[in-house]
Each structure stands twice: as structure tokens, then as C-alpha cells.
Amino acid sequence: MRPLSNRPLLTVEAISLIYGESDAGLIIDTLQQFRSEALGYVIQIDTLWRTGAFDDITRYVHSLKTMAAMVGAERMARLCQVFERQLKTRDMVEAQRSYPIFEAVWAETLAEVDSYILADGEASSDAEQ
């Protein structure tokens, strides 16, 4: 497996591969849906992290891993895979180390998704003029 740092942050071509289309509108809709749902999961993970409800955190991390992989957020998906394994095996020393990385990679992923959505919106506005 490649280390986390060598993985792309966002590879939107994954959406086209999964859905079999390269429609820009589909890609933007998919990214917006990912953003909305994933943000809800990350908020839940953050809340549960403070309470120590690790089984619940594991379920949210698993769902986030799947969603991230489906939109090409490779670094987030890989980190969730590692974090999920740590939580399942109760390797709390490593999970404690991973959590700040999880937060940072989520912030980077969210910024990249927002940037892609914004760039598409600007491109659409330019095309309409």
C-alpha cells in the first residue's frame, strides 16, 4: 500500500469511472452530496470522539471511508481505512495519533471539494456570458 502522503487528495475521475459518465453536472451533484453527507459524519465522529463511543465512531468512519472512495477522495478513504482498523482493534494509542491527522485531511479534502465545486460554478457562469 502506498503511504497516505502519496495518495491524491481528490481524483474526481473516480466519479466518472463509478457512474460511467463524465457529465460535469453529475460530478458536481455527487461532490455536493458527498460534502453534505460526509460533513454530517465528521461532525458525529467529532462529537462521539469526545465521549469515547468508539463502536459508533467506527460505523461513521466506515461509512465515510466508502463515500470518500466513491468520489475519489483517496487520501481520506485510506486514512479512514487505517483509523477504522485502529478503532476495531482498540489500538487507542495509534487512534489518538491518527485523529488529528483525520481532522487535517478532512479539512484539506473539504477545501479541495469546495474548490472544485466553485471552479465549476465559475466556469458555468463564464459559459453563460
UniProtKB/TrEMBL annotation:
Pfam families linked? Hpt
PROSITE patterns listed in its UniProt record: HPT
Q: Per the database record, which ranges form the HPt domain?
A: 23-120
- Matching InterPro entries, A to Z? HPT_dom_sf, Sig_transdc_His_kin_Hpt_dom
Q: Does the keyword Protein biosynthesis apply?
A: no
CDD domains assigned to the protein according to its UniProt record, in alphabetical order: HPT
What is the top-level taxon of the source organism? Bacteria
Locate the Phosphohistidine modifications and list their residues. Answer: H62
Coiled-coil parts of chain: none
Q: Keywords on this record? A: Phosphoprotein, Two-component regulatory system
This protein's name:
HPt (Histidine-containing phosphotransfer) domain-containing protein
List the source organism.
Rheinheimera soli
